[in-house]
Every structure is written in C-alpha cells, then in structure tokens.
Design a protein that fits this description.
33% helix; alpha+beta; globular
Length: 548
Amino acid sequence: MQLKLGPLLRYVDETRATVWVETDEPCEVEILGHKTPTWSVHGHHYALVLIEGLQSASETPYEVKLNGNQVWPLADSPYGPSVIRTPRADGSFRLTFGSCRRSAPFDEQGFKEFGPDALVALAERMAGSDEDRPDALLLLGDQVYADDPSDAVLAKLRQAHGGRQDTEVADEIGNFEEYTWLYDDAWLTPAVRWLFSTVPLCMLLDDHDLRDDWNTSLSWRRWVTAQPWWHDRVVGAYASYWVYQHLGNLSPEQLEKDPTYAAMRALDDEDERSSYLDAFAWEADDDPVSTRWSFYRDFGARSKGVRLVAVDSRCSRDLQPERRAMVDQHEWEWVRRHTVGATEPINHLLLASTLPFLLSPGLHHLEGWNEAVASGAWGRRAAGIGEDIRQGMDLEHWASFRKSFDDVTDLLTDLVRGENPPASILMLSGDVHCSYVAEASLEAVEHPGTAIRQLTMSPFRNPVGRHIALANKLLDSRWMTALLHKLAKSAGVRDVAASWRTAYGPWFGNGVMTVVVDDDRVAVDVDHAKVAGGRQELTSTVRYEVTR
C-alpha cells in the first residue's frame, strides 16, 4: 500500500487544514489523528483529509499513514518534514504565484529547451532557510499541458495507442486515465512534491489544461465540439481538474455543500461514482452555469481583510456574439457578491485571473481592434480574417472581451467608491509567458486611498522564443502603441475608463512573484530562476513597494 501522489496541502485557516492524497488502493488515510476513507473513480483512489483543532499561529509537522502505516515523509527526502502553518499572529502574509510549467528532465537538453524550474528553485530556497517562506502558493493555469505533453508522457501515449497516429490528436491527452499521467509527471518531482506538501495551494485552470485556444470564440467552439474526440477529452479534463485541482480550493464549509463531493463519498459502487463524475464534467462544459470553478479565500488574521477572489476566465465564457463576455452574467454576479458585496471589509483585494486584465497598452489596443473586426466592424470578409488572426495570435485576453473589460473597470470603480475602500487592489495573472508590474488608475473617480496594480508572472518553466520576446517589446513601444490605438479607433473601439503603465518589466525568464502584505503596507518581490553549480536557484530581480 503506497502513496501514489501527494500529499498536497490545500486549505489552511486559524485552526483547520485539508490535505489531498492519491493512493494505490482503497484504504484509510490518517493525518494528525484525523482519519478518512478513500473513494475511487476510474480505478484511482483519493482522499481529502480535514484536520481540525490546530493551534493558531503555529507550525505543526505531519505524517501521512495508510491503514496505520506511515508512508510520508519519504525516508530519503532531503527537504525535511512537511508542516502545516496556521496564519501568523501579526496578520502579515506572503502569497507566491505564477503559471505555465512544463515537465522536462533536469539535464543539459531540458535546461536548454525549458530553462530552470522556478518551483524547484523555490523549494530549494525554502529547504535552506525559513525566511521569506510563502504562506500560500497560487498556480494560475497550465499546471499540465494536455495538448503538448512531455516526452515521457508522449512515449506512454504511443505505447498505449499501439504506435497509431490515426488522428490529429493522437499525441494529445484523450481521457481521464491519460490526464492522471500528466499529474504524475508534473507533481512527482521530489522538490515540487515536498513544496506542495508544506505550502497551501490554490489553483485555476487555463487553456493548456485542456487545449490551446480553449473557448477563444464561438467559431472555435463550434469546430471543436463537432470533433469525434471532444467528448472523452473534455470529460477527462473537467473530471480530473475537479479531483486534482478544484476540490482542494474549497473551504470545509464549501465542501459540505458540494453535491459532487457528497456523491463521491456516499455512492458505494466505483462505476456509479465514475459515471456521476463524468456526467458532472460533461454538463460543466455543456452548461457552464451548472458548476462554478471560481473561488475565494480569506488569508491571514481575519481582522486584516486579505481576500483572494480567483475568477474562472476560461470555462464560464459567453461566446454568443450579442452577449460575448469573458465571464458570463451568472459568474460575474458571484464575483461582485464576494468583492463589492462582501460582508466584511477587504483591506487588500487579490483579484486573480489566469489571463491578465491589463496587457501592455499596445497589445490591449490590438486585441480591441481584433474583436471589433472579427465581430463585423469592417464587413463580413474582414471578420473572417479577424477570426483567423484571433486564433493564430491568441488574442483572447480581457481586452478582447470589451464588455467584460468594462465590467472590471466598473467593479474597481464601485470598490474605491465604497464606504471602506481597499488599501490595494492587486490583479494577479499569468498566461502570457512574461512578467511585469503595471500601475493603474481609474478615469471616472479619484482613488488616492487605493493602489491598483496588475501583477503578471509567467512562466514557472516554459520560456518563449527570442522572436516572441522581441515582438512583445515592440508592442510595448510608444510609437507602436500610438499606431495600434489609432487602428482600434478606426474600427470603432472606444477608450476604456482606466489608464496604466508598465512600471517594471517585461521579463521573459522563468520565475515567481510574491505579494507581501504587512498591515497597510504591500510589497512585491520578483524572483527569477537560474542554474548555478548544478542547482536551481531563485535570484531577486526587483522588490517593488506598492504606494498609494
């Protein structure tokens, strides 16, 4: 009896925590005296252990036992014990985040193609010192690459398919079982496995968790849903995402109300559980209102008011031309309810989306122009060309969903006009394979008491080629921004009710970004990874003080 994957430390508050595991057979999982049986789907066995009665402001090492036998920590681990840290007594808080991590060997070829792994480098730093240890880790999409798996997974796929290359997706992940190979490949790296066992994790999915350009447009969706491989692919994607990523995002109270989790624990037959989960996954794609992937989490001492609102900007899109939105009305009402409508004051709002809200101004204008042209601003023929450009250049960020971008500026305006405006609104994102800090202000209202920033960190390990980096820098140039602004205006695109500038960056290396909150003070640490003396290390790029 063995621990197949995990443990993953997920939710932590002042007295409680949840830890996720996958085992190789049915058993009882025990952590710190708290026990729960596994449940199984598609031949795999899982458990989410709720631990209660922790001391506030404490650090508690833990072991994992299966049927009473200790299986974690591993005897030969160089990283020390796994621990659960409840929020600090002084209310200070550190959140590290980023996105886009490819799995590849840590050898000369792997480093040449993908560079060092920022999460491995983070684990190595933590193993060497308790200083600057994050209190939470936010993974903002592309945790796995279903459309471009590693060589190790690719070899397994080809062996399973008997070497056949009979479809365009033969070398891509096709079902739940194959998705489990991706998670094993990504999360069994020893340093990352220990990191995930000792820092609470939050996760959101993005396109490569299913397929590049996922839900880019109605045209794309009509094409993909007509493909014979789509059903198994999307069911496997959503079902595995719910098990491996989403379930741990929820608080104990939210878990108690989750009907899918209740079914997994209540149904006696594995086939019934698998059928239930598959039906849930299919409905989640067919009717986005049927489920919710967005979540929120309050961090630090409750009186300090640090709230993360993680917005699903991939699955809940409304692609109908007359309502085209990054986030449909049902989901956006939820976002407003947990921000503007929050029952307790929010001192620092961390508004997360896998896709950046604020791009470089030049790229913002390009995406606005493209949406207008693809929607018919220059006629039907130009609309077809616009759609080809949209899919070819991945022009699918908030700027390309103008209705939703306006919703965001309205939300920010309502927040800063409120009775207790936040000291900071930090928009956290990934996706774009570069990192930067942007300073923003609203046009409709002055907000001297609230700092608004876009913080983008990508990738953990998947750098872009030099030509793409040069293209990004070109789009950020003053003359190109002015030219693209005129182009957008020529297609009838109105200016938005906000302005911003890139204060630091863009950088194109693998790295992590950390938000440091201490009462009303906020700083941002940007670190990038390097290989030195055969070790993967993080080096400081800049510390940015957020001032109002």
